[in-house]
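Bug #77: duplicate submission created two jobs. Keeping one. Sequence:
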Amino acid sequence: MEYKLFGTALEPPTDFKDDLAAFCRLDDEQRSTIAEWFLSADAYDLYAPNLPASIVKSTLLPEQFRQTAGVIRTLVSHWHRRGLELRDVERDLLLLGCDPDQITIISTTLNRLSPIKDRVWIDARKDAERTTGLPTIDNADIVWNARPVFNGDAYHFFDADSFEASYDRLLGFVYLATMEMSLSDSNGNKQRISVQMDERTFGCLLNGMNRAANQLKVFKASTKEPRPSSTGPEGDD
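Kept job's structure:
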């Protein structure tokens, strides 16, 4: 079975049909709220730290919003990418097993979002580029600790008998930041990396990040993004 939305020999994403059904179970006001978010938003980050104000004010739960807006985002992106007519999308929904009422609900929303489908597609491509190449940071935590400094080491492989008699004398503390990063690559492989920094190195990191932020402002001010075209590109993800 070939779906026009996904191309030859490709299948819909996992849980795609279930997510579409979840969208159809929303009431008219909730679906309208999601459509309005698409029409007004500049980007479509479903996992931003703060939910959009319109979603917070609605009756949508965060999980509902992410699930249902996510499947609409995928649907609109593929619709534009393949250069399809709305009737082609409806044909694929029928092949997926959607009933006539569900197809009507989804088609109505897609028709409303038709003017911005290129914008949704471009955002999806940018999102893909953010995870392509080197591993990306899923999460980062920084914890400060105080490490005691003694007059001698507790363990020494060589010449252990010559340890200082006052090895248990406490001289002071060193303050260290432990930074742990959780990383994942485009294949879903995950890893953790932990590093430690003293106060000086931590300060250098902060200064470097601030300078990089200023460079980004200059960089963005000197570049201009191309305007979206009226037709979507064709090809593989």
